[in-house]
Amino acid sequence: MGTDVLSHSSKEFQENPNSIEALKQKVRDGRIRPLWPLLMNFIRLPLVLIGILLAYLLFSALHSKQAFSMAMLSSNVTITFTADLVCVLLLRWLTHREGLRLRDLFGIERNKLLRDILLGLLLFVLLFVCLYIANTIAALLVYGPTAFSTPRSATSGYDASTLPIVTGIFLFSTFISPLTIGIAEELTYRAYAFPRLIALTGRLWPALLLSALGFGVQHIAFALTGWQDALARFLGMFLMAPVFCLLYLKMKRLLPLVIGHWLVDAVGLGLFPLLFLLTQQ
Fold first, then answer.
1. Could you tell me which residue ranges the CAAX prenyl protease 2/Lysostaphin resistance protein A-like domain spans (predicted)?
2. Residue 22 and which of 44, 145, 160, 276 are 20 to 30 A apart at CA?
3. Range of 69's domain?
4. What's the rounded Cα separation, in Å, for the pair 218 and 235?
């Protein structure tokens, strides 16, 4: 792929109001400036940390001996309200400023709806495999050959009194948060920030690097148990981000990525830990 992805001039590319061609014109008109694309690219980290802090304060007020562990575990719940909801509301405002609708970021075409759904199911498999590879590489780089020698279960360290709460968190993480995360992250990183960073820089690689940094940095918030855990989570998501970005650039529609992302999170964040928990009771 060339350094200037703006060379495309197909009718489909130009008719899309969120296309890079259309965005580049808005950059020339002064309607898009670097501040908001950069801010949205990194805003989810502090929003996720706010959610974790609020959860920690709540569990501390309940005199929980595991306040920090429970706050970290419930981050998949709090992210829905402190990051996903805030990002969607901000994107609604930002797109309105540009003369777009929030739905324009999805690029949904009715005649391709069924195809996009099926494509999303296929992307689930691809994304799941790529995520496994990225996380494996990251773990080996950070922990070395012993990275997988002492696996830790998702529920170890929680006493019996917390199991009802833990079960509720995993249920939420299986059926609700994957959908909100899939929508909000794909809207924020891939449909909003990434194409605008390309339009602003005129080149693919700076935008790809910035998007990977933003996506990787956000996930540090889910691994605050140690610097190695944080670094491994960052590296895994840093390696994964270009896959999402290049798929979006190829398809120019967000729905397949949202579906694939949603299913990956539903399995990884909720279903596997929930099944493990239920088999232990």
1. 170-267
2. 44
3. 11-100+115-279
4. 11
Cα 218 to its chain centre, rounded Å, is: 8
Quote the number of domains for the chain. 1
Q: Which of 191, 179, 245 is nearest to 213 (CA)?
A: 245
The answer to whether residue 2 sits within a structural domain is: no
The CA-based dihedral angle spanning residues 189, 242, 8, 13, taken in that order and rounded to the nearest 10 degrees = -40
User: What distance in Å separates the CA atoms of residue 68 and residue 56, rounded to the nearest whole number?
Assistant: 6
Residues contacting 244, CB < 8 A, separation 6+: 127, 186, 189, 190, 215, 257, 261
Nearest-5° Cα angle at 241, 151 to 105:
130
Token pair in block for residue 231: 């670094």
State the pTM of this model: 0.89
d(CA 202, CA 82): 33
| Contact partners, residue 51, CB within 8 Å, separation at least 6 | 75, 78, 79, 81, 82, 83
C-alpha distances in angstroms, 127 versus 131, 154, 233, 239, 263?
6, 22, 16, 12, 10
Query: Is 105 among the domain residues?
Result: no
User: What confidence tier does 9 reach under pLDDT thresholds 50, 70, 90?
Assistant: very low
Helices and strands, number each (H, E), in the chain: 15, 0
The residue written with tokens 């950070």 in the block is 142
Do 211 and 197 form a contact (C-beta atoms < 8 A)?
Answer: yes
Do 79 and 51 touch, CB atoms closer than 8 A? yes
